[in-house]
Design brief:
The chain is mainly alpha-helical. The protein has one domain (29-115). It is 76% helix and 0% strand. The chain has helices at residues 2-25, 39-46, 50-72, 77-95, 98-115. α3 packs antiparallel against α4 and α4 packs antiparallel against α5. The termini are far apart.
Length: 121
Amino acid sequence: MRKLGFTLVAALAFSVSAFANNANDTINVAGKWDGTINKAKLTKYLQLSSQQNEQVASICDYFQEQMKVANSSKKNSDQKVRNAVYGNLKLMKNTLTEKQYSDYLRLMALTLRNKGIDIQK
């Protein structure tokens, strides 16, 4: 009888934890990322020139402002996040070399995926 009780408790605990994991998957993570980018690490990673460094810093600041506006918006928040990301990529493409932009694009895609943001809708 004890074994049956332990089995039922284990099955109940497993099903509750599985349900809790599914509930966490539906949380909008995009609202939690304000678009902050570590400019010093980005400069080092992309090996930016001094002129590029200033331009990229301005673009990152602008992107962060756009993400804050998008996340605080009650209407079309997903669309505004998407517009902020694509705007950032367009500005970066005009500033960076082809190799730097390729590296930045890969980094941004990884960051967005890790933050749970899907812009391909």
